[in-house]
Specification:
Number of helices of chain C: 15
Low-confidence stretches of chain C: none
Radius of gyration of chain C: 24 Å
Helix content of chain C: over 70%
Low-confidence stretches of chain B: none
Largest sheet of chain B: 6 strands, mixed
CATH class of the largest domain in chain C: Mainly Alpha
Number of strands of chain C: 0
Largest sheet of chain C: none
CATH superfamily of the largest domain in chain C: MetI-like
CATH class of the largest domain in chain B: Alpha Beta
Structural class of chain B: alpha+beta
Number of strands of chain B: 21
Order of helices and strands of chain C: HHHHHHHHHHHHHHH
Oligomer: heterotrimer
Chains: A mainly alpha, B alpha+beta, C mainly alpha
Structural class of chain C: mainly alpha
Shape of chain B: elongated
Strand order of the largest sheet of chain B: 6-7-8-3-9-10
Number of domains of chain B: 2
Amino acid sequence: MKRMEKYKGWLYLLPAILFLGAFMIYPLFDVFVYSFEEGYNFASGTYFGTGTYNYSYVLRDPYFISALKNTFLIVMITVPLSTGIALVISLCLSSIEKLRDLFQTFFFLPYVTNTLAVGLIFMILFKKTPYSDGLVNNLIHLFGGSTIDFIEGPYSAKLFVMCFYTIWVVLPFKILILTSALASVPRVYYNAAMVDGTPSYRIFFRITLPMISPMIFYLVITGFIGAFKAYSDEVAIFGTDLNSAGMNTIVGYIYDMLYGNSGGYPSFASATAIILFVIILTITVINLGVKDRSSINKGR
Amino acid sequence: MKIILKNLTKRFPNRNKKAGTDVIAVNNLDFDIPDGKLVGLLGPSGCGKSTTLNLISGLEKPTEGRIFFGDDDVTELPAMNRGVGLVFQSYALYPHLTVFKNIRFPLENLKGDAKLSKEEMAERVSKAAAMVQIGDLMDRHPSELSGGQQQRVAIARALVKMPRVLLLDEPLSNLDARLRLQTREEIRRIQKETGITTIFVTHDQDEAMSICDLILLMKDGILMQSGSPQDVYDDPENLFVARFLGTPPINVFEGSISDGGLFIGKDRVMELKSCQAEGPVVVAVRPEGFIPDENGPLKCIDARTEVMGRDVSIVSKHDSLFDDCPVMRSIVSADAVKNFDTTRTAFFLKPGKVFVFDSKTGARIRFEV
Amino acid sequence: MDIKTRNILSKIPVYIILVLQALLVLFPFYWMILTSLKSYASYNTEYIPKFYASDPTFQNYVDAFTEVPLGKYLFNTLIFTVITTALMLVVITLAAFAFARLSFPGKNIAFTLFLSLMMIPAELVIITNYATITTLQLRNTFAGLILPSVTSVFYIYLLKENFESVPDDLYLASKADGTSDMKYLLKVLIPICRPTMITITILKVIECWNSFVWPRLITDDPAYFLVSNGIQEIRENGFGRENIPAMMAAVVIISLPLIVLFLIFRRKIMEGVASGGTKG
């Protein structure tokens, strides 16, 4: 009886272990197995060989190449832009007192909304239909530009909407994090700098920025990870058939391989998932390396 | 640099908007701080001493009144152009910069004619560091320093730009007791060496009394009294000042004046030659103002002695003691209590250590014996 | 006086940026509500869309419930959200309690393993989960929807930290009184840590309400669609593709519960997210 008592903690952990074991740990190993089983078939549970064929197939698949390109473009455009815009807005927010709460509430609103649903609004704002050119095109027309179909038109237009919406969706989180990071810089440092006659641009670069830099790095890393996993926002704008829209992403490719119009290939999906994981891991490690190096330069 | 505060008033809007009235942090403060002195701004928390310091540094603008540094009116001058050195209570050292870079920081802001070369800066920094004896810590980060060392870095950073005025906000409150004693001597030494007019804010009267040339005692935004520490201690203008200064604190009794005699309760403790007042008063007696003698007029009960090295305190009770002053403490020499009988405790009072105050206003009532 | 005016003037660019951003954020919501109030006919006659509804109608809202099974989607989402959140709270509370308060052999190793699971992206495990649920014949069931979302390593971690901030003395005192661990958890720890538990609950509710990827994989029967999948279905097959006002009405209905939740628990949600939550 006493001996059992010692292990009681495990009893409390049991539900979590069961769920995590079944839906996280087991799948983690299984996905590797799948990725090396060639021609695995869900229905029969059979496969005809093991090897790296799945990987080489995926890497040569034009749909994957296109998804890879889209994903990289989304990452490279949205992460720096959204972080920069969030920084500017957070700085503005921190410098005012009146209406600050109200603005903060507005800015956070997109975080709690269903991105699939709101994506529809963006679609109709940008879309050209037989009845109307859409509001954005009306605006472009007003300023003398020529109208474009952002949803089914040229690639660059689609990419623009894509990035615009992605930034719209990720900004609330970043603004919130940066605003609280700015608020947590003790006021006394600014007072000290002021008494020492420090001009405001120097206060920003020498005090504010170094002190919130851990949070900026956190946002950049999570931003990279999040953007590499882009999928729902694309569906929201372009619909579920991303391949035909030419706007598929890596994650979209995984799901399409698994299920959907071209689905039923869990081996290909697994190989892609592992490729994605390797990409994310590499980028994160590089980011951490950059972070370490820049702190070495600061003399840490 | 002489500093003149002229009718200085600072009002803050009340946080509770419905209450409507402003909070007056500093009320019509009028004072000249002579050049080259070490001045202590003293008072209980919330008395407006930190606000006064912020007004002098320029971090806050006065609602009314003017501030002069020498002949210059600096009232409208922002903090960055006043040339003051400020040491913050929390030191405010930049955590991401080394000690060297922290101290150099103010120098890098100099522009135009005042601009310094790298070498000149390094020299100024090492001079300031030598002054506070931290020359060997230059490459450390603030997190790697002890509280006392951080304090020195903060002082060096304030001194490095050769300020016209050095301001210290509760500089010792974050240090432990031993370090506090050491550091306050250090502040004294640095001030004497540099000759910079220095103002430091503290709520600890011991600190102010021990090192300042001049103290300003504030309460509720109003200057209660100023002068050299000894003068203020020996000649308090009101009950608040008398009670605030001195350890152990002054003993306070309800008393009265009648028939040319000063009474504590029923005990006629002193004969007064000339005194305008009659009726109830407050009588305050410094701990060193008692002479134990069983024939003395002040009769006490429940006496016991506490020996503290050279001195002895006699702790006793009296019916007329103030409620917030539970025991009467007198400090006497060890010889005086050799044959002390705790069952028949009585004292003579030293007239110079007895202060009488108006029981309503707390203003000093002077008398001769 | 001069300085005061200059201060106000220097703030003008700041306010311009903030107002622009507020417009960018709020305009889509305004457009959503506006469009949902226009009738199908009037919407289609506006080649240049008007910024007001000249003849507002609630017909679209009626259509959203009658012409497409929006009510069913909402009901499914509600069930999914409530059950998932409730189960998760039980699972994470027990686990957090074990890690925070109990001592048992292997605890440190177990905790380290738990933490390392935080780094695993969902995309890596979803493939096998899909296979598992399919094998168990749980596609198009609530069980299939709910089971994989019941644990969150991050929330276990968050709650454990919170449990640990409760002074040891309380636990020792209740032990001395002969209180059982379970009773201590229910009567002392949970009431004290209620604010954190509420925050976790709200964040999980938001997550559930917006979940899209897993439900999309595991349901193809519209009878089990959640709102996110429902809106995709509506977009592609409902109302006839071009009835945009009706779609917007559906979007309003779907967005409203979370916006109301947000307005009520604004501070809690923002603090919870700022203290380390990430989206999705």
